[in-house]
Structures are given as structure tokens and as C-alpha cells.
Batch of 2 targets.
Target 1
Amino acid sequence: MKPWHIRPLEERDHPAAVELLALLNPEIPTPVVAERFERILDEHPHYQAFGGFAGDEMVALAGAWVATKVWCGRYLEIDNIVVSPDHRSGGYGSRMIQHLEALAKEELCEIIVLDSYTSNHASHRLYHRLGFEIFGFHFVKSVPQTP
């Protein structure tokens, strides 16, 4: 196994990040994924993106931000966590979450939250193993745009 490290993304890492995000969202064209990722980084300065690297290769990605809600207080939300298919089941996802858990402690967060697609059963097993619980439902409603 190549040496593993996690670090904040730099601009030069963005193409590799987009490749991983496209794997997580195969129904979205890659140029749209790239535009949305750049928009997140441009419009939300509190958003942090981290890459997990095996040697020089980015094999895992996760975004996170810290916010506050009335019901839970200060929290860290994990966004878009993905591991390259060639590196899944190698502990990379667990290490990424552990890194973000340490960040949550540094930021004095009371909880960590994340969303997972209902069909992503492998991620559910990982999250349960790492101590996450299913707490509620994430409801979604489309907002039609007028031309």
C-alpha cells in the first residue's frame, strides 16, 4: 500500500476531485459536476474539501462545513464522500471520516451529519460501523424553473 495522507484540496487537485464526484453522481454530466463543484467552492467559503491520497493519487474525497441548527447546535456536515472503486474496502473511507471527526472535535461540534443515497447499501454499512445512526428522513422536492 502506498503512503496515505489527507490534505485540503488545492486548485490543481480539482480535476481529480471532479472525476471522483462524477463516479458518485453518474447521472449528471461531468461538465455539470465540475461547474457545480467550482460554484460550491466559490460561493461558500466555509466549505472545505479534502483529498485522501495514496502516494500522489487522489483516491478519496470529502467535503465538509460547520454550521449551527437549533435542534442540534454546532455540527459538521460531511458532503460528497467518495472513494475510487479500485480502492474501496481498503479503509480509505473510514480514515477520511476519522479525519473529519477530528475536525469536528477541533471545531467544537456536537454532532456530525451526512446524507447517503438510499440505494448505497455499502456506505450504510460503513456509517453504521463507524457509529452513525439513521436519525430521520431527508425530504426533497423539485422546484420547477420557468423558462
Note: The mean pLDDT is 93.
Target 2
Amino acid sequence: MSVDTLDLLARDSGLLWHPYASLDAGARYSVAAARGARITLEDGQGRSREVIDGMASWWSVVHGYGNRVLDAAAHAQIDKFSHVMFGGLTHEPAVELAERLVAMAPGNLQHVFLADSGSISVEVALKLALQYQDACGKPARQRFLALRGGYHGDTFAAMGICDPVDGMHAAFAPLSRQQVFLPRPPAAQRTASGDWVFGADELERWEAQARGIAAEHAGELAGIVCEPVLQGAGGMHIYPPRVLRVLREIADKHELLLIVDEIATGFGRTGKLFAVEWAQVDPDIMCVGKALTGGYLSLAAMMCTPKVAGVLGSGSGSSGSALLHGPTFMGNPLACAVACASLDLLTGPGDPRAASAQWHAQVARLERGLRAALEPARELAGVKDVRVLGGVGVIQLHEPVRVADVTRVAVENGAWVRPFRDLVYVMPPYVCTDDELRVLGSALTAAVGEVHGG
């Protein structure tokens, strides 16, 4: 097996690009199997290790690998048809999924656009906002108000609303439309007792700046875009729910659309079904993805209110009434069928927001387990902060993380992680057991201590 793995790793290097890596970077491990919250890694040197996937494959495999319910849903749909075009046609999985999303969503989000991926759902949301303003007789509103520290995807319009300086897309700034950015919101912590802790004076200063910047640019803005409460790839930054209420007030005052990017935070990850619910704020547009299919297939959705859809549908603007986007694999039946099964697993019977909902109990257990498991890391000299929100656990360092070394030691201690910036973090599958959470915590603590100083 080790010879085959070594050959596979060699064949990969120089052939395949990996995310945010050079062509010759290759991969350190190959995956031989995956089941539950665990993946089996082989390193080409005859070593095989079963490790806990602290990444849930970039936050998507919430129900674990090889889930029988999702497997059955995929098999059943394949036996019928795996794909059909969505132009002029429809099918039961797409309609059922849209109905389910509307029933779950916060506020009055009643209309659904099914997209290929999270980035594409953001692109569609931005297009919709521009067409909306045009249909309202305000074609000059061509820019967006976004937060520093935000990340919304790798496609061009999405890149434009990511952090323009500290984000991952600064090299492409000349090719993206220049948007308007608010300062990064002040940091917050949610304590084990459920309290939100943050600097009140700092938040007051941020609010004054936000209102001033918005007023200055209001006539050219179509909407406000944010990741609610948790900025993910921009630094696992948690901010006070009050920020969302301020953004809602700004949007209402200046007739902007509030667009929330719930791709990483949706479906329970932060402890609410959707993170915007921490502020009891209703968005005009919402994007979801990642956990939507339980990590089985790429699928996302953009949802909007009747106010938005109705104005666009009037056709009074120069762009007409059509929402100008249409992916080849839009509404893919296989992905939609698996997504419906995934929502079944998340909610269980009854109200998806009830304390008895499956996701609610799972994420509450993750939060308790991660708080206990990561607490020892707080004593390490190299650690700046430890924070937990729902099923997200973060160890922040005083220096940029040495990714290869931390990954190696974590694997040796039974965990797969993908650190970045100054962060060693986990967003594990919801099905992780208490023992698996303890292993994650001890592995991360060991890795940080060995590599960055105990």
C-alpha cells in the first residue's frame, strides 16, 4: 500500500494544483478511507493513520463520512436520474429543497436560486442587488458596502467584496470593482454562560464610523454584504450581534439591500440555525452552501424576500425581469435530493429551531466539548487567544502558524487540521463524540506547544 501511495503522491505533484498552493506543492497525505468523523491518511512511507477530521472537509461534512441516510438518498436519486437541465424544466428534489429552505430561513426569504457553489451564490446575490436597484430607477447604485476582514469566495465579484488589503485576493485588486469598506467590527467572545463580551466603547466608535461611511457613499451603493457574527477565512473573527442590527438600520435608512453570507455559518454551526438570528435581524438576501448537502456534493442557494423578487419581476428597469444567471448544473437533482436528506438529519421531526432539533443538541455538545478540550492551550506561551462559538474552536497564536509542522504533529496525535494565518482551528463534524473532541483538543494543544512553544 505504501508503494502505491508514494506513487500517487508523486503523480499528484506537478500535475494538480491544490488550494492556494504552488503547482509543485503536491500533497503530504492521500486519503484511503473515510467514515464518521474520521479519515484514514497514508503518507507514502508505509504509515497509515486514522485521524479525526477537525475540518469537516472545510466545514461541510457535518453528518460525517459514509452517512447511511445520505448514501441512500444519493443511490435512490441516481436510480431515477442524476441530472437534467433546469431551463424550462423542474423536478421534485429541487422544488422540495426550495420549500424546505423557505420554511427554515429567517425572516421572509421566500424565493430561491440554486447555484453551483458558495462563491456563485454570492455572485448571483450581487447581480440581483444591482438589477434590483436598476429596476427601482437607481442605476447609479453600482457598488457594495462590505466589512474589512470579510471573505466571500474566489470568483471575481465575490473577490471584490473580500478584504482588499489583508484578504487573499489583493493581487487581483486592479481587476475587481472597487467597493466601499467598513472597518472590521470589534472582537467579541461568547462565554460558556451565554453572555456576549466585547468592548462597548470600541463598538460605539465602530458604529459611528459605519454610519458615517454609509451616509457618504449611499447614493452609489446597492447593498451591504457581511458574514454574520463570524468572519471565517478572514480570521475566524467573532463580532457582536449588535453589528448586524446597525447594518440593518443603515440598509433601511439608505434603501440598501442587506445580504448575509451564511455559507460557512448556516445550518447551526454558530449555535443558531442561521447566524443572523443572533441579532434577530431579517436579511433581504441570504446565501447558503457548504453544509447544505452534508458535504456530499457541491450545491448552494441564494434566497431573497418578495420585496426584492417583486421589484425585479416588474421588468421596469433596463435589465428586464430575468435574473441574469443560469449555471449548467443549476438545481442538480442528485445534489438536491441529498440536500433534502441532509436537512432531515439536521432538523429531525418538528421545528428546526427547537431545542429538540438534532443540530441544536449536536452543536451545543460540540461547544461544551471544544471549550473543555481547547482550554489547556490557553496556558501555552505561543498562544494569544482561545475562543469558541458553537461548533467552531480557535487557537490564535502570537505569530504566523508554521503550517506544515503543526499539521504533521497534529496528525501524529490523531487529528487532521488545516491552519492558516495565525490560527489553528477546528470546525468538526457534528457527529464527533466527546472522546473525539478530547482527541482534537489534545492534538491541537500538542502541535501548538511543540511547534510554537509551550
Note: The chain has 13 helices and 18 strands.
